[in-house]
Specification:
Low-confidence stretches: none
Number of domains: 1
Shape: elongated
Structural class: mainly alpha
Mean pLDDT: 88
Largest sheet: none
Order of helices and strands: HHHHHH
């Protein structure tokens, strides 16, 4: 998936699982809380470094989510529903077509139109 639309699809897949990824990172951070009685300086520094890395990753994920949310806000309501069903909930094309009362072919055309809109909006956004 080297095309621009393919890359946007991958970003939407990442966006769709943001909450779950952040929950897992927060759980890792909770487990890395400095154990009481740890007097080993090396171990303390390793814990601090790993926590800093995870906190940075968490902040990066949220920044990307906010960027994608801003792009998605420019879509029509039915297009936002498609994105939510496909990339956040993970439903298939056939189910989405039945849910939105449109044909499978129309779902694919809608997807292509949405990906192009998002790509254009990203180009136009400074």
């Amino acid at each position: 998936m080297n095309s621009e639309k393919g890359q946007m699809k991958l970003r939407l897949l990442d966006w769709g699982c943001t909450v779950e990824r952040c929950r897992r990172l927060q759980e890792e951070l909770r487990r890395l809380e400095e154990p009481e009685g740890t007097e080993n300086t090396f171990l303390q520094e390793e814990f601090k470094a790993e926590r800093a890395r995870l906190e940075g990753r968490l902040a990066e994920i949220w920044r990307e989510k906010k960027r994608m949310d801003a792009l998605l806000a420019g879509l029509e309501e039915n297009e936002q529903e498609y994105i939510r069903l496909r990339f956040e909930k993970g439903y298939g094309i056939d189910y989405i077509g039945r849910r939105l009362y449109i044909s499978r072919a129309t779902v694919f055309r809608m997807q292509d139109r949405i990906l192009e809109k998002l790509r254009q909006a990203e180009i136009e956004t400074p």
